């Protein structure tokens, strides 16, 4: 059986019906996200991924994610904390500040930080930082990423570029992990999956569909990763897929709670804000919402987003389907819906007890395994 690793995704989703209904404040939402990561850490999940978004009311209030992730590293023991993503375009975050923050988080976590990168997926964000078009972000990303790697490697760094320039400077601190933390990129299109493979970096993606809908994209990546010319110091051969999960002993209870969790509201916000994503045919335009699934639809497996909702045996079959199409990591975003924390805790404890041991038998993270196989196991060498 091929292995599968597991993680969680935090977005600091804070919808109006929570605050208007006095369900929880923005501060309580933030604290719940941190508790979510600690629950995952205690129950054998290997990764926690934190978004960086700006100006996206309701959808994501997690703007200063580097501060959030630093706290999460201090509050956990084993789980790797990753950015999903850190926006590395120069108008949003100067590349030198990216290099500094990543290296600092790498030190704070004793090598438990994962560097997920991106260019922004919303015109609300991108235009808010003075970037004139979404297409421009591709050029900005392509310029910044290799420069961040150079800043870590070189003692006397200088650069004259299109979006930023620097006189000779030593960018500090240098990473704790030799030569640097694992690099990932957010991807949703065939071109970006191919680009990630060419650069030798992992892919962060999410699905509203079945494992089969991702298969062609994963195939593109896996066919090209062996030909990588890595932008960093080693290849991170990894596909992470984000979806939802509710694992309860009574599968029908899980499906009933899923139908009541208002996941459709969050999904509608995705397409309200993230206008770089293709809108599925027939998908409602905000403020209209997609229909919530029924228990019968979930039981029949016809609702794509509910692929990991049910009892442990049912979910294990779905996990195997993701393995079969080539995914390496499944990550769940259970705080972007209306579950209470007691339900989330129950679900993740059962998943950690019944499912993780069946699929993830290696105590070492795959990103660590790959780095050590290619460059060795040293830390803090500079």
Automatic annotation (TrEMBL):
Transmembrane spans: none
Keyword Oxidoreductase appears in the UniProt entry: yes
UniProt keyword annotations, A-Z: Monooxygenase, Oxidoreductase
Pfam families, per the entry: Bac_luciferase
Protein name, per record: Unannotated protein
Residue runs in coiled coils: none
GO cellular component term, pick one: cytosol
Domain Luciferase-like: 4-329
Annotated spans, Disordered: 362-382
């Amino acid at each position: 059986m091929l292995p599968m690793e597991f993680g969680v995704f935090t977005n600091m989703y804070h919808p109006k019906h929570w605050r208007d209904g006095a369900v929880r404040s923005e501060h309580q939402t933030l604290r719940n996200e941190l508790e979510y990561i600690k629950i995952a850490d205690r129950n054998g999940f290997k990764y926690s991924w934190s978004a960086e978004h700006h100006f996206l009311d309701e959808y994501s209030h997690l703007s200063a994610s580097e501060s959030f992730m630093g706290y999460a590293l201090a509050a956990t023991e084993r789980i790797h904390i990753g950015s999903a993503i850190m926006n590395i375009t120069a108008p949003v975050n100067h590349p030198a500040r990216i290099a500094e923050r990543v290296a600092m988080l790498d030190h704070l976590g004793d090598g438990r930080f994962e560097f997920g990168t991106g260019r922004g997926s919303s015109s609300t964000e991108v235009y808010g930082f003075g970037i004139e078009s979404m297409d421009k972000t591709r050029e900005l990303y392509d310029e910044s990423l290799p420069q961040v790697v150079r800043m870590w490697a070189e003692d006397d760094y200088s650069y004259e570029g299109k979006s930023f320039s620097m006189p000779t400077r030593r960018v500090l601190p240098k990473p704790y992990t030799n030569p640097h933390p694992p690099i990932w990129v957010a991807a949703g299109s065939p071109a970006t999956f191919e680009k990630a493979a060419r650069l030798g970096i992992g892919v962060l993606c999410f699905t509203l569909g079945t494992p089969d809908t991702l298969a062609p994209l994963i195939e593109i990546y896996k066919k090209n990763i062996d030909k990588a010319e890595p932008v960093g110091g080693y290849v991170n051969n990894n596909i992470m897929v984000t979806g939802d999960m509710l694992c309860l002993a009574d599968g029908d209870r899980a499906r009933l709670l899923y139908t009541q969790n208002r996941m459709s509201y969050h999904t509608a916000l995705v397409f309200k804000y993230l206008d770089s994503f293709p809108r599925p045919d027939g998908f409602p335009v905000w403020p209209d919402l997609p229909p919530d699934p029924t228990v019968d639809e979930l039981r029949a497996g016809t609702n794509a987003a509910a692929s990991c909702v049910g009892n442990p045996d049912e979910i294990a079959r779905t996990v195997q389907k993701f393995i079969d199409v080539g995914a390496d990591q499944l990550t769940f975003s259970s705080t972007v819906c209306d579950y209470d924390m007691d339900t989330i805790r129950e679900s993740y404890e059962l998943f950690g007890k019944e499912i993780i041991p069946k699929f993830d038998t290696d105590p070492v993270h795959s990103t660590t395994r790959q780095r050590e196989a290619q460059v060795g196991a040293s830390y803090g060498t500079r």
